[in-house]
Design goal:
single chain; alpha+beta; FAD/NAD(P)-binding domain; Elongation Factor Tu (Ef-tu), domain 3; Arc Repressor Mutant, subunit A; 6-stranded antiparallel sheet; 4-stranded antiparallel sheet; 16 helices; 17 strands; 37% helix
Amino acid sequence: VDLIVEGDRVAGVLTQMGLEFRAPAVVLTTGTFLGGRIHVGLKNHPGGRAGDAPSNALAERLRALPFRVDRLKTGTPPRIDGRSVDFSVMQVQPGDTPVPVMSLLGSVAEHPEQVPCHITHTNSTTHDIIREGLDRSPLYTGVIEGIGPRYCPSIEDKVVRFADKQSHQVFVEPEGLTTPELYPNGISTSLPFDVQLRVVRSIEGFENAHITRPGYAIEYDFFDPRDLHHSLQTRALEGLFFAGQINGTTGYEEAAAQGLLAGVNAALKVAGKPAWCPRRDEAYIGVLVDDLISRGTNEPYRMFTSRAEFRLRLREDNADLRLTSIGRELGVVGDARWQAFSSKSREVDALRAALANTPVIPGSPLTVAVEAASGERISKASDLLNVLRRPAVRIDALIDALGLPSVAADVAHQVETQTKYDGYITRQQGEIDRMQRHESTPLPPTLEYASIEGLSAELKQKLIAARPETLARAARIPGITPAALSLLLVHARRLRESA
């Protein structure tokens, strides 16, 4: 419930029982527990989540430290007993085929039984019930002050803000294989329980539904992420790392990625090694962290592909190629994963080489076979890798024409994707190289922004608050101009030369 602080660094944690755990690095992943307050209708009570107490003592301790703090809000829908639901009137939403896996080492055989989701919708009756209950909604009576997620608003917000919509989708998700509970994604609410029950039972398929747990809104503390380094270590206290909703993000993947990064950097710090954070062109977590630390946030931040300027490189199929070697150097990739990655990399290189080294001559038996398989006419001498660049040509047809032994699906997909997008990827790499020239230009921590003539008072204030570590990170601070970057570059060089 407390941090052990010695000078300007963290030295461990103190539990509620009075036990001390000494540590040179501490990672805080507090979720919605810091000063958490749960709202159902006009009633509210302290809570970290339903059934759990908040971390008020820790919240007060952190508020006493030199961090900028604010409040955010999130919510959850009521849970429903699936045994009381009529699925026959809903639209079935089966999972992906083939079943995807989350890891290079994963296989479909390891997956549990697959169960479908379902879709239903709210209706005009639902919306009327919600409007009638707004006078008892904490969102619309000023009880809740925290800002909620923009991209997953409560059902009250949807009905009020999108009054022209006759219905809203409800994605009915099973909570698990061993529970009958359902998660009706799309009707997050903090309305009173009696209103929630009427809302649920007005929805097709839920007419006889039993609510097992009510929906609620929860307000909690978060700390300005601009007070962090890119390693997620706080600027104010050495050895203290923040990850997840404490940094103003929302979403499971966002929190998990930050926890991984903060944990890696905490371990690196203890080992006396330099911190690491992926660049914006290396991983979505690099985009997320850079956005938060460069720009901050005043609402729960969610990661979207549209936030990444180099998303052509940040594909699901090449995540292992982008990050496994780095993970091996950091010590978080074990031998089994490294061997699997190395084997796949060799297979990708071998397949590309086989295609590049196989000539295609008009009229030859191989060319005729390729034309028959792809439906494409080949009139000029080339090689199979160039033929694969054609939109209509599939790699399976070329593998069959070559008579190659069985090629793993992920290997074939990787080669096909790399080849078809090669021109675009090369062009984007040029943009990345230009950006990296700025990334490799450090801004000394002793740079006195207030004394740089030519910078506006606004820019000086932003630079002093952000203390960017490189020229590229300075460039991403809102309002920074090319002229300001030139001034920073000149002054940084002068400072280094005089050192």
